[in-house]
Write a structure and sequence with these properties.
Helices cover 58% and strands 7% of the residues. By secondary structure, it is an alpha+beta fold. It has 2 domains: 9-185, no CATH class; 229-280, no CATH class.
């Protein structure tokens, strides 16, 4: 399969405008934001492709039984449809593919990272009226159904397997070495889900220096979210310098130094030194 590459600058500018607008709306739509990420990654994903992905989510939701019952019944219905009948699941090899972080590709391949498969589960279940939400366990994203006292967890990466309390404990212990804290089981905010997806894209690109283009757009989309780590500005500056955009990188480094100076003068001075070195590369 060909690796995805970003669209033209004009198309990218329009996609980013829409991404920022959706992220700042009163109720950001998770599937729309994920598909705009996909369009920023893949120049082949046009407007018809964006619409087709939403139609596929609607189609899958229409295949669910009408109001199957309580939280566990919803989880089982999603497992039977998406995991067993449709074959959505993940494998260790999916962590090596950028497509595993792109919703439109996951809908076609029926494979992806835990968080993208969870997006499929959430968006299909939400359309069918299920009480569903994402649960950002450390190192492994899952979905939850129902209120806290009757919460049921399912693992889309494992085909939607319904998790017992011991199963969830093992997942968390494997990632952190400690047990489950109740705060880990809270519903994840859609914008936090999108930021975590973009973090995965950045991690994929970090292991592939030749794809600094991917790292750059992932950082720049993250910066469009209403809430994001300030250090992403520093990361963007470093990427610009690495890509030979020395003046832009220097300006970004200097702006970041201004932000950092209020809390860490030594770090600010170091960043200004990096900006000076970047400007020197122009000579």
């Amino acid at each position: 399969m060909r690796p995805p590459y970003p669209p033209s600058p004009e198309r990218s500018a329009e996609l980013r405008r829409r991404f920022a607008e959706e992220a700042r709306s009163e109720r950001p739509d998770l599937s729309t934001l994920c598909l705009l990420v996909g369009a920023e990654a893949d120049r082949e994903l046009d407007e018809a492709g964006l619409d087709a992905a939403q139609v596929e989510l609607d189609r899958l939701a229409g295949l669910l039984p009408f109001r199957p019952g309580g939280s566990r019944a919803w989880a089982v219905a999603l497992r039977e449809l998406l995991g067993e009948r449709m074959g959505f699941h993940g494998t260790p090899g999916d962590y090596q593919r950028l497509e595993s972080s792109l919703l439109h590709e996951v809908l076609v391949r029926r494979r992806g990272l835990p968080i993208l498969l969870s997006v499929v589960w959430m968006e299909v279940a939400r359309r069918a009226g299920a009480p569903v939400y994402g649960v950002a366990l450390p190192g492994h994203f899952v979905v939850g159904f129902g209120p806290d006292e009757g919460q049921v967890l399912a693992d889309p990466f494992d085909g939607g397997r319904v998790l017992s309390g011991a199963d969830a404990e093992l997942l968390v212990v494997g990632a952190t070495g400690t047990g489950v804290d109740p705060s880990m089981l809270r519903p994840a905010d859609p914008l936090d889900v999108v930021l975590r997806i973009l973090n995965n894209v950045r991690a994929w690109a970090a292991a592939r220096p030749e794809r600094s283009d991917v790292a750059l757009w992932a950082v720049e989309l993250s910066l469009l979210l209403p809430s994001h780590p300030a250090r992403l500005r520093y990361e963007r500056a470093q990427l610009l310098v690495r890509r030979g955009e020395f003046l832009g990188g220097a300006l970004e480094l200097e702006a970041y130094a201004e932000v950092v100076e209020a809390v860490d003068e030594v770090a600010a001075e170091r960043v200004r030194g990096e900006a000076f070195a970047a400007r020197a590369m122009l000579n």
